[in-house]
Amino acid sequence: MESFEASETYTHFAEKIKELIMIENESQSLIDELDNCLENFKKTIKYYENSKSSQKEKCNFSISNKQNYDDQNENLALSTITKSEVLIERLKKKGDMFEKLKQLIEIAENVENSL
């Protein structure tokens, strides 16, 4: 009976390791996506700054066009920030799950050692 329990514990342990690997892969994907969002945000700000200085040089840019352009840039920046915040929250949840899995692995190791 003990070998069956040990085999069952090993199988459970292996499943938890697979889950841990999947969580790590998803976390890395989220980190990559967040990096991409932040990089796009930096590019947007730089583009906006360059455009703003270019607009100052061109005096024939109408006020309504400028306002529309500014609104578009602001909306893009805000959506990038919002998406980044969502991704950060998802990463925090994954981090909590990762800690729980580490605890489960420690428990499984203790059970395996006690057999």
From TrEMBL:
Protein name per the record: Uncharacterized protein
